[in-house]
């Protein structure tokens, strides 16, 4: 058997998903499991809320990968998700797929209360904002117009159906939250859900999504419906088994658990047949396109905040997106789980997919055990790998993974359908804002025809940076590329070699001076190397040097 090439540690003994991933890694013969406190690892399968992100990526000579993204709780905690959706311009269409929601803090926490007339502005400017006044205004408006008065209160950090109240009474909901002592979300209840027959029962849909270290988004091909055991009754809000599909609630409180589906789970193959026979609609054309668009919108929104693309370590993460479908086949996002469990029969395939997509793409795995050979993955990020850009596309450093890897399918970017990759500033990957006046290059700085782009080149060994001109300086027309191109100037920082660049004209005096200094220092280093070869350093033979 080949000797192990890479090492990993496991710090979450309760995760069944990563327990299976560990078994798969060990079975390859190329991974060795270390003690949980050993810092010299390649891969950490850690516990979601106790990861030492600040200590990752500091081991010389090691590429380190961790199974969570730092900051992903922006999506995975209910209150944070509500705030993100309300304050992100990229999610301005969220009213079409996310129920009306409000963040409520208990009164004893003395949290600032947003005014009913300008709640969103207050939410943007304050880290913590109680939206009870905004909620009450909306509640009374809907009550007067007859749009429905059923709302659901959910604990922001709650799980397994805990900390939930469904009610017609706004004051009852607020009093319940005040007595709980922690932040909650009040959400408009979906009063007309699509129901399963037989039994007239509610269901929700769990979809598994994997984000790799390049922030490629992959959707697992299988999904599962978590079904209720009891008939849906909109007039009886006290029967939680009728309204909540959580496994814990159904298994503990319903005598009909498992009566209709084994384990109250229906998989996509059966659901496809059901939708076609019962409603004459297909899953692929009616439900899945909505699911995919919601997933892409949410994950793309937080990419700039959590991506590890330019950090000293890499991340990947498995997410669980929970959806509901109303009677008009409209899909609604309910919540996002950052450490989702999985149906028992899906473990082998799902976990093998995690290894193939998220781990084998980062580390070179091969049958011969030669760690120096090139990775068979088309998007390897080993230390020797380089970015390859295409002059016919935007010079974005993001590497696209393969469209299909085992049971996972990559969700293409929203701009891929456009005829020109840079035609839409909102959807183009090249339109991301510069994070500083210095922007390193991901390839030749090709300039769209008819546009001005003034660059100054500063070269330090194999690093080349492009500097934007100061505001108000007269623009200079850069020579157009030899072949017409619709490519954008580089939009995200990336290391590149000087051979990738084209000339941008004579540099200013300070650039020449900087180059002269660098050249002089390199010559000094070369002279010291020659002296060492001759057995002298600073003119002193080795045997005559004083002991330090």
UniProtKB/TrEMBL annotation:
Cited Pfam families: TTL
Biased composition (Polar residues): 475-488
Highest taxon listed in the record's lineage: Eukaryota
Biased composition (Low complexity): 412-433
Any one Gene Ontology molecular-function term assigned to this protein's record: ATP binding
GO cellular component: spindle microtubule
Keyword Glycosyltransferase set for record: no
EC number of this enzyme: 6.3.2.25
Database matches in InterPro entries: TTL/TTLL_fam (IPR004344), Tubulin-tyrosine_ligase (IPR052492)
Function: Catalyzes the post-translational addition of a tyrosine to the C-terminal end of detyrosinated alpha-tubulin.
Assembly behavior: Monomer.
Protein name: Tubulin--tyrosine ligase
Organism per entry: Scomber scombrus
């Amino acid at each position: 058997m080949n000797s192990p090439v890479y090492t990993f540690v496991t710090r979450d003994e309760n995760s069944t998903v990563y327990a299976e991933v560990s078994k798969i890694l060990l079975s390859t013969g190329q991974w060795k499991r270390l003690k949980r406190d050993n810092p010299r690892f390649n891969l950490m399968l850690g516990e979601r809320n106790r990861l030492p992100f600040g200590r990752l990526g500091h081991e010389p000579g090691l590429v380190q990968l961790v199974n969570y993204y730092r900051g992903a709780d922006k999506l995975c905690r209910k209150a944070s998700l509500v705030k993100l959706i309300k304050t992100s311009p990229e999610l301005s269409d969220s009213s079409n797929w996310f129920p009306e929601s409000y963040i409520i803090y208990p009164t004893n926490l003395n949290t600032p209360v947003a005014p009913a007339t300008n709640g969103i502005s207050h939410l943007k400017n304050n880290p913590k904002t109680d939206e009870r006044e905004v909620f009450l205004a909306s509640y009374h408006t809907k009550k007067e117009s007859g749009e429905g008065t059923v709302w659901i209160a959910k604990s922001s950090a709650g799980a397994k159906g805990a900390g939930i109240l469904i009610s017609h009474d706004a004051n009852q909901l607020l009093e319940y939250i005040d007595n709980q002592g922690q932040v909650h979300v009040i959400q408009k209840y979906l009063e007309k859900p699509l129901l399963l027959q037989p039994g007239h029962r509610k269901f929700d849909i769990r979809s598994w999504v994997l984000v790799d270290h390049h922030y490629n988004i992959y959707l697992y091909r299988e999904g599962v419906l978590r079904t209720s055991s009891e008939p849906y009754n909109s007039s009886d809000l006290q029967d939680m088994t009728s309204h909540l599909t959580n496994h814990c609630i159904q298994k503990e409180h319903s005598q009909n658990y498992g009566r209709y589906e084994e384990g109250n789970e229906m998989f996509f193959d059966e659901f496809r047949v059901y939708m076609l026979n019962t409603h004459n609609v297909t899953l692929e054309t009616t439900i899945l396109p909505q699911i995919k668009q919601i997933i892409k919108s949410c994950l793309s929104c937080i990419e700039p905040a959590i991506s590890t693309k330019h950090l000293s370590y890499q991340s990947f993460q498995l997410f669980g997106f929970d959806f509901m479908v109303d009677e008009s086949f409209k899909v609604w996002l309910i919540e996002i789980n950052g450490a989702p469990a999985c149906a028992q029969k899906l473990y082998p395939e799902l976990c093998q997919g995690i290894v193939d997509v998220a781990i084998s793409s980062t580390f070179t795995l091969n049958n011969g055990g030669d760690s120096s050979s090139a990775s068979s993955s088309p998007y390897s990020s080993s230390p020797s790998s380089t970015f390859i850009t295409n002059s016919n596309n935007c010079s974005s450093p993001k590497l696209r993974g393969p469209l299909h890897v085992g049971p996972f399918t990559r969700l293409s970017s929203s701009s891929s359908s456009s005829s020109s990759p840079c035609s839409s500033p909102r959807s183009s990957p090249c339109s991301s804002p510069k994070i500083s006046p210095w922007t390193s290059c991901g390839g030749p700085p090709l300039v769209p025809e008819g546009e001005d782009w003034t660059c100054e080149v500063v070269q330090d060994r194999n690093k080349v940076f492009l500097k934007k001109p100061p505001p108000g300086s007269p623009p200079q027309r850069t020579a157009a590329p030899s072949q017409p191109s619709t490519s954008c100037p580089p939009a995200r920082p990336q290391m590149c070699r000087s051979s990738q660049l084209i000339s941008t004209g004579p540099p200013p005096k300070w650039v020449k001076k900087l180059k002269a200094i660098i050249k002089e220092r390199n010559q000094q280093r070369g002279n010291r190397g020659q002296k060492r070869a001759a057995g002298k350093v600073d003119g002193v033979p080795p045997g005559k040097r004083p002991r330090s």
